[in-house]
Design brief:
Nuclear Transport Factor 2, Chain: A, 210 residues, 6-stranded mixed β-sheet, NTF2 domain-containing protein, 6 strands, alpha+beta, globular, Nuclear_transport_factor_2_euk, 33% helix
Length: 210
C-alpha cells in the first residue's frame, strides 16, 4: 500500500480539488442544475458499502439526502421577490474558502483493484532500490504510487459567501457558511476511468445562513 502523500502534495491536492469543486457546485446551484451527482449517494461503490451523505441546513438534519436539500433550496428560491422565474431568484457568490486534508489515506469503499495497484507500485519501487539501500529511482512506479496515494485523500472545505433571493439586484443578501467533507470518486480513479467525471464527492455538508 502506498503511504500517505507528503504535506506539500496535500496542500496542492486540497487547493486544486476545493477550487474545482466550488466552481462546479455553485455554478450548478446558480444554474438550477441537478445536484445528485455531487454526492456519494449517486455512486454505486459507496452505495454498496452502505455510505450515505450526511447533510444539515441551519441545524436541521436532512434525512432525505440530496433530494431533500434540493427541495429546500427550491422552496427558498421560490420565496424570492420580483417577477422573474424561480430559477432566476437564487444567486450564490463565494467570497472565500479554506481546505485541508481530513484523512490522507482514505479507503472507505475503495475497490480492491485500486488498493492492489497501489501495493504493486510500492513493491516495485522498493525492489528497484537495489541492495545498497539507496533511494529508489523516481520512475513510472513512483508516479503510479504518487497518483494512487493522491486519489485516496479526503478533504474538508469551508466556504463563505452570500446568497441573494429575488429577481432584483437590490434584493437582500444573506451571508452563508458551508462546510463540506469531500471523498474520492472511485469511478474517476485510474487510467481507464471515463472522462468528465467528478473526482470528489460530498460525504458531509453543513450549510448555515447568517
Amino acid at each position: 500500500m502506498a503511504g500517505p502523500v507528503s504535506e506539500e502534495a496535500q496542500v496542492k491536492i486540497t487547493s486544486e480539488a476545493a477550487q474545482t469543486f466550488i466552481d462546479w457546485y455553485y455554478s450548478a446551484l446558480n444554474d438550477k442544475k441537478p445536484l445528485a451527482s455531487f454526492y456519494v449517494d449517486s455512486n454505486t461503490k459507496y452505495a454498496s458499502a452502505g455510505v450515505k451523505s450526511d447533510i444539515s441546513a441551519n441545524g436541521l438534519h436532512l434525512a432525505g439526502g440530496p433530494a431533500e436539500l434540493e427541495a429546500l433550496l427550491n422552496k427558498h428560491a421560490g420565496q424570492g421577490q420580483g417577477t422573474a422565474s424561480r430559477s432566476e431568484r437564487a444567486r450564490y457568490e463565494v467570497e472565500g474558502f479554506d481546505a485541508q486534508v481530513v484523512n490522507p489515506d482514505f479507503r472507505v469503499a475503495c475497490p480492491a483493484h485500486l488498493l492492489a495497484g497501489a501495493t504493486a507500485a510500492t513493491s516495485s519501487e522498493n525492489n528497484s532500490g537495489g541492495g545498497g539501500g539507496g533511494p529508489a529511482p523516481r520512475g513510472r512506479g513512483a508516479a503510479v504510487q504518487a497518483a494512487a496515494a493522491a486519489s485516496r485523500v479526503s478533504i474538508a472545505v469551508q466556504v463563505t459567501g452570500w446568497v441573494q433571493y429575488g429577481a432584483s439586484k437590490e434584493s437582500p443578501r444573506s451571508t452563508f457558511n458551508e462546510v463540506f467533507v469531500l471523498v474520492p470518486n472511485w469511478d474517476a480513479v485510474g487510467p481507464k476511468a471515463a472522462r468528465g467525471l467528478k473526482h470528489w464527492l460530498i460525504m458531509s455538508q453543513n450549510f448555515r445562513a447568517l
